[in-house]
Amino acid sequence: MTFTGVSQWFTRLLCKNDSKKYPCFSMILSLSSSSSSLSSAIELNSTMKKLIGSRQYKQVLGLFDRQFPMCTDVTFTLALKTCGKLEDHKCGVRIHQQLSLKSLQDPFLQTLLIHFYMHCHDVDQAQKIFSTIKEKTVYMYGAMFKGYISNNTPEKFIDLFEKISVEIDEVIITILFNACAKLCDSQAIKIGKDTLNRLPISFLQNQKLVDCLCRLDMFDEAQTVIDDYEKSNSPSLVMYTAMLSGARNYHHVSLSQKLYDRMRSLFLNQHSDLISAAILLSNTYASQ
């Protein structure tokens, strides 16, 4: 039986049976189909996407290496994303080094490289790439900010945020408040308050904002957000729960009791949520 015949036999077997029962057969089949000559970069990228979808990451990288001559920027993107999922720093560096000078100027690939190195905890390399980019986008800043938070360096986030040269979006604002909450020093609180005064009206109705403010001990500001939100929306259990949780963390007993009483009047029929709120309240009293 030829190699093609073996492949067809495996295909018929997997069609008749659940492929999950035969993981080794499934892997062999994918390898054999991937190894065959692909006629175009579009077909190559499509095959890689399918392998990523089935979490066959090593096969993706093997296919990338075998079909390298026909690789496009899309192919490099898929390969780098796969390295990130595997946290394969060495392979990602190799792929980075194979990028052409033109590709290295592509904003999407630049952002992806920052994501990759941050994901692999190589903060220095991510910073190096970011520093060489002349026209920085909000997505590049977002990649840096997320990377600083995931690598537990919120102070670097704050430093970069003060130098930001593009208009910030809601994602970055949320990350900012999370970073401020982690630091919770005088500088972080000042930045949080200054940013709050510059926020667009649309974001002032973002439920996540209440949680961020409460973690900064900015309960008056959080209450103002809730009041403004309720002018055009029904009361939000998420907002009140976030504020009650924050009050627990800062041991604000009277505020916790006030919030719980308010929740009981607003969400009378949501019994399980009120039980959780009662537990938060009792924990606040117990912390005294």
TrEMBL record:
Gene3D superfamilies: Tetratricopeptide repeat domain (1.25.40.10)
One of the Pfam families matching this protein, by short name: PPR
Signal peptide: none
InterPro entries: PPR, PPR_rpt, TPR-like_helical_dom_sf
Entry protein name: Pentatricopeptide repeat-containing protein
Lineage, opening ranks: Eukaryota, Metazoa, Spiralia, Gnathifera, Rotifera
